[in-house]
Amino acid sequence: MGRKSTGEQTGVASQVRAKATQPPLFKVLMHNDDYTTMEFVVTMLETVFRKSPAEANRIMLNIHYRGVGLCGYYPFDIAETKVNKVHAQAREAGHPLRCSLEES
């Protein structure tokens, strides 16, 4: 017996499933202050946000000169966790470093 082609049905279902599983992304922003050292900001960008040293330095300079820098785009739970990690490590080190979330 011959089999019917289900290519069209599979393609549509895959497209619908792909749309349903992509969560909205949030921007994580790091804000400038007058007390947190540039070295600490670079360390946070490298360790928490997994940036290369060159990328971390570029973002740090944006934060320093523009007042805010983009650390990345993440689903809400991941973005919130990264913000909390930065805040906890900054408090532990005695820095007032602040991050925020914005829906993108």
Automatic annotation (TrEMBL):
InterPro entries for the chain: ClpS, ClpS_core, Ribosomal_bL12_C/ClpS-like
Alphabetical list of HAMAP family matching this protein: ClpS
Underlying gene: clpS
PANTHER family, per database record: ATP-DEPENDENT CLP PROTEASE ADAPTER PROTEIN CLPS, ATP-DEPENDENT CLP PROTEASE ADAPTER PROTEIN CLPS1, CHLOROPLASTIC
Keywords on record: Hydrolase, Protease
Origin: domain of life: Bacteria
Family recorded in the similarity comment: Belongs to the ClpS family.
GO molecular function (one): peptidase activity
The keyword Transit peptide is annotated on this UniProt entry: no
Protein name: ATP-dependent Clp protease adapter protein ClpS
Keyword match Protease: yes
Role description: Involved in the modulation of the specificity of the ClpAP-mediated ATP-dependent protein degradation.
Domain Adaptor protein ClpS core: 22-100
One Pfam family hit: ClpS
A Gene Ontology biological process term: protein catabolic process
Taxonomic placement: Bacteria, Pseudomonadati, Thermodesulfobacteriota, Desulfuromonadia, Desulfuromonadales
Oligomeric and partner information: Binds to the N-terminal domain of the chaperone ClpA.
Gene3D superfamilies: 3.30.1390.10
